[in-house]
């Protein structure tokens, strides 16, 4: 039953990009072209499973003093909604500034004003083997994704772009090669993991946020993956019903570098290398494949 071809019950293609079937319509995607941008907006862009929720938490801690000092109990999902998945039917125009949106959109489907250097974009990338393994685990616990019991099949779909988010390489290359159209900061999951403080300072600088040394320390302490897993505002444990099926696993799993080695065989690792490694050399990113690799 589980062939290379994904079930049409779970995905559809629009303008060359693969979307999850039940969370969005082509009409809504098209409407985003004219989505009204404010100069204070921040867009967090990722390919799925590249540290989105973690970075959302870091941004929330930097921007919202009430999150930092524990006086506000607002879930990150409500504070930083998804641009393309408006599952709670929020009126985005009514959100107070600065608005922060998360999105998995490719560069060419984002709002026109964003492509004219308005607002700010933070793009986080992660090594594709860890993305692949994280995505595979994720597909088992989220009902909106097709469950594929065989990792090999999932891997081939991932490499062929037959998963929501399409091809990892196209997504990353698209954003990097169109950087001049955006007001953009590029980060990698691995650099954030290895030196969170530096990443926090980079983000503060990019957003024009002046935090005291004490505030920076507070952000870094609370934003570690381990602390975030314990924080109900940030750990996505209580998801809207559309995502149900979260009984057997957790939205936040390991949050580490090199977990792919625990899942992938040598042959599978070589298969990913064969498809991606050569082309990845053109990207201006140093990829880290193991926690002990140097940046």
UniProtKB/TrEMBL annotation:
Main location (coarse class): cytoplasm
Subcellular location: Cytoplasm
Gene Ontology CC annotation, any one: cytoplasm
InterPro entries assigned to the protein according to its UniProt record, in alphabetical order: P-loop_NTPase (IPR027417), Sulfotransferase_dom (IPR000863)
Sulfotransferase domain location: 39-283
GO molecular function annotations of the record: sulfotransferase activity
EC numbers, comma separated: 2.8.2.-
Positions of transmembrane segments: none
Keywords: Cytoplasm, Transferase
Pfam families for this protein: Sulfotransfer_1
UniProt key word Transferase: yes
Family that this chain belongs to: Belongs to the sulfotransferase 1 family.
Protein name, UniProt field: Sulfotransferase
């Amino acid at each position: 039953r589980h062939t290379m071809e994904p079930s049409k019950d779970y995905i559809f293609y629009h303008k060359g990009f693969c979307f999850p079937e039940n969370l969005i319509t082509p009409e809504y995607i098209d409407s985003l072209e004219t989505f009204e941008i404010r100069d204070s907006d921040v867009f967090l862009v990722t390919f799925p499973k590249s540290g989105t929720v973690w970075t959302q938490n870091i941004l929330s801690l930097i921007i919202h003093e009430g999150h930092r000092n524990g006086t506000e109990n607002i879930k990150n999902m409500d504070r930083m909604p998804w641009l393309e998945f408006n599952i709670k039917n929020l009126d985005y125009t009514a959100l107070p500034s600065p608005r922060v949106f998360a999105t998995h959109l490719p560069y060419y489907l984002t709002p026109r004003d964003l492509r004219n250097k308005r607002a700010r974009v933070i793009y986080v990338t992660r090594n594709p083997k860890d993305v692949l393994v994280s995505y595979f685990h994720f597909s088992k616990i989220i009902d909106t994704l097709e469950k594929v019991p065989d990792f090999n099949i999932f891997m081939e779909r991932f490499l062929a772009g037959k998963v929501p988010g399409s091809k990892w390489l196209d997504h990353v290359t698209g954003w990097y090669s169109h950087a001049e159209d955006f007001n953009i900061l590029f980060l990698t999951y691995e650099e954030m993991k290895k030196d969170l403080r530096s990443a926090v300072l980079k983000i503060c600088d990019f957003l024009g946020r002046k935090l005291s040394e004490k505030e920076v320390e507070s952000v870094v302490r609370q934003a570690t993956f381990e602390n975030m897993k314990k924080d109900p505002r940030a750990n996505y444990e209580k998801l809207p019903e559309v995502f149900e099926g979260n009984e057997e696993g957790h939205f936040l799993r390991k949050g580490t570098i090199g977990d792919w080695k625990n899942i992938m065989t040598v042959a599978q690792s070589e298969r990913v290398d064969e498809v991606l490694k050569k082309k990845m050399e053109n990207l201006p990113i140093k990829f880290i494949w193991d926690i002990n690799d140097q940046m």
